[in-house]
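Hey,

Quick one before I head out. I ran the complex with nicotinamide-adenine-dinucleotide overnight. Inputs first:
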Amino acid sequence: MHIKVGIIGCGSIARHRHAPEYKANPYVSEIVFFDRNPERAKGLAMLFGGSVATSVDDLLDDPTIQIISDCSSNEFHHIFSTKSLEAGKHVLCEKPISLSIEFANKIVQAQKKSGKKLMVDHNQRFTQAHMKAKEMLENEELGKVLTFRTTFGHAGPEHWGVNMTNSTWFFKHNRSALGVGGDLGIHKIDLLHYLLGDEIEQVSAFQGALDKVDENGKPIEVCDNIVCSLKTKRGYIGTASFSWTYYGEEDNSTIFYCEKGIMKIYHSDEYQIEVITKDGERVKYQIECMQTNDHQTSSGVIDAFVDSIRLDKEPLVSGEDALASLKVILAILKAAETNTVVTI
Ligand SMILES: NC(=O)c1ccc[n+]([C@@H]2O[C@H](COP(=O)([O-])OP(=O)(O)OC[C@H]3O[C@@H](n4cnc5c(N)ncnc54)[C@H](O)[C@@H]3O)[C@@H](O)[C@H]2O)c1
């Protein structure tokens, strides 16, 4: 099978994950790049091989292109991903699926109508340690989960995106809206849904633009920190914090406190899971390295998406899964804004 791929948006995520992972996939024969900044598309075509399109329609009108990776900034996902599905393409959409439930629903409906595959890049599900943790939680190796604590934070997107300045779109309300919640928080919400096999139903939260300033030295228009309490439908309770101000070191850890002990994931540099049993025994699992902004490894997402098309399987992260996580982030922001507990 020879699959031709179109990538819309040739910034950091296209450069570090989509393009290299498509290039490494044995079933992908060609990549066509498009960016509204043509130099970026040309740059990736030079780096990874492939051609350059002059418009989104160029990609969508090409019947030989089967997959579109939507790596545009957040405010465009509902436009490009919807159009691509309507044009009969399989779509790998970057997270967050959209900035509003209405827009996310447009993509989900377009997928249903088209019958094409849609996956959203909630890549935390794909790491080996998270897959191992899921297996251990499903087998109730530590009994039932009682509470959890998760966090995701780094020094901020002005150190990641293609525009490495404080004028980055990640800091603008009309382009990123959900701030650190849509950037990092939504990953952990998806992970909790996946690991617990449950959905968050109630939230309370505090948020703020605590430290980041824009290009004019003014506090940014979106939140750079969120701290929240979460309760799932089945009654698990826990806390989560999401931050763009963890200066010096990224934190991507999750801890489950269970009936028979504790499971710590990505809590140490040397091993990826540590289990501490009720009687104090410690078991360390060395499985792989965590992918960070500074240390990029294959996410496994692209291979999984290509396989879902090749083998006609349901993608691991559906549009509905991504919509469910978006609803939680929107509820968290509403809870913080109204100082109330919000039920989803
Ligand atoms: N899954 C992950 O772990 C992960 C990590 C980082 C970013 N992302 C997501 O990937 C997406 C892109 O983020 P990024 O970090 O690459 O940002 P970026 O700013 O580095 O790149 C975005 C690119 O999209 C292009 N673009 C924007 N609007 C466009 C349009 N209308 N038409 C054509 N091109 C357009 C820009 O010119 C830019 O080159 C975002 O949705 C972000 O949330 C996901």
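The CA atoms of residues 209 and 223 lie 4 Å apart.

Talk tomorrow,
K.
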